[in-house]
Each structure stands twice: as C-alpha cells, then as structure tokens.
C-alpha cells in the first residue's frame, strides 16, 4: 500500500541496551491488515532510539543499512537488526501505522470491503 507520508533517513548508534525499540509485522504475521511491513511498536526509554528522538512508535521501517525490509518475515527483520552492526542506518516512513489504520477504517466505513460484493452476489442468486 502506497503512503504519501514523510520518509527520513536515520542513523542510530547501538548502545549498551541495544537500539531500544520493539518491532511487529512481517510477511508471516502482518501487524496491519493489507500491509506486511515492519512497524515500531515500542521505544525503550533507555535505548538509542528514544534518546535520538527521531524514531516514533507507529513508524514503518523501510530499509536497514540499505537492505529493503518491506517484504520480509518477522524473524528475517529481527535477524537483520541483530546483525546490523553498531551503526544502523534506517529509512523510515513516519506515522505509517496511524495512516494505514485511518485508511482501513475509512474503507470499512464507506462500504469498501467484501460486504458490497457479497450483497451483489446474494441479490444475483435470489434473482436467479
């Protein structure tokens, strides 16, 4: 799903307590319906990401050290972060989770789901 949101390049130095954030998502366990990306779900107050101040909960991580992670499993994403080294460069889409959930909510509210298809199918079967 394409988002028209700000994308930033961030660099974090791995601290004593690691990078300091949790992720969810992946092709095997999507965090957002219809988007299998990797999302930041929690920042640890003593971690590098919190201290840096640029990464936020709800951001979608697009790349790590130049490697695209938009279509990887959750475990693959974890391994990429574990092996990323002390200096970790990321491309991040800010506010992606909130925007995706807003879009999902609007599409459901506008009858933009499979319910419309089912109603037409039922009408056709009843007429036949």
Summary?
The chain has helices at residues 48-52, 74-82, 96-109, 114-127; strands at residues 7-13, 21-25, 38-43, 60-64, 67-68, 87-93.
User: Unreliable runs, pLDDT <50, ≥5 residues?
Assistant: 114-118
Total count of strands: 6
Largest sheet: 6 strands, antiparallel
Q: Element order, helices and strands? A: EEEHEEHEHH
Shape type = globular
N-to-C span:
37 Å
Helix/strand/pairing category: alpha+beta
Helix content: 25-40%
Mean pLDDT over all positions = 87
- Count of alpha/pi helices: 4
State Rg. Answer: 18 Å
Strand content: 25-35%
Describe what this molecule looks like in 3D.
The protein has 128 residues and is an alpha+beta fold. 33% of the residues lie in helices and 25% in strands. It has helices spanning 48-52, 74-82, 96-109, 114-127, and strands spanning 7-13, 21-25, 38-43, 60-64, 67-68, 87-93. Strands 1, 2, 3, 4, 5 and 6 form a 6-stranded antiparallel sheet that branches. The longest helix is centred in the C-terminal third of the chain and has 14 residues, at 96-109. It starts with 6 loop residues before the first strand and ends with a helix. Mean pLDDT is 87; it is low at 114-118.
């Amino acid at each position: 799903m394409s988002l028209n949101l700000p994308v930033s390049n961030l660099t974090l130095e791995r601290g004593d307590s690691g990078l300091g954030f949790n992720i969810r998502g992946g092709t095997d366990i999507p965090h957002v319906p219809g988007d299998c990306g990797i999302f930041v779900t929690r920042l640890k107050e003593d971690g590098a990401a919190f201290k840096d101040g640029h990464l936020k909960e709800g951001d979608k991580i697009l790349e790590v050290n130049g490697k695209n992670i938009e279509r990887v499993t959750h475990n693959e994403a974890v391994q990429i972060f574990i092996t990323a080294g002390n200096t970790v460069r990321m491309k991040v889409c800010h506010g992606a989770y909130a925007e995706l959930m807003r879009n999902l909510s609007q599409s459901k509210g506008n009858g933009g789901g499979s319910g419309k298809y089912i109603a037409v199918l039922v009408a056709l079967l009843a007429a036949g």
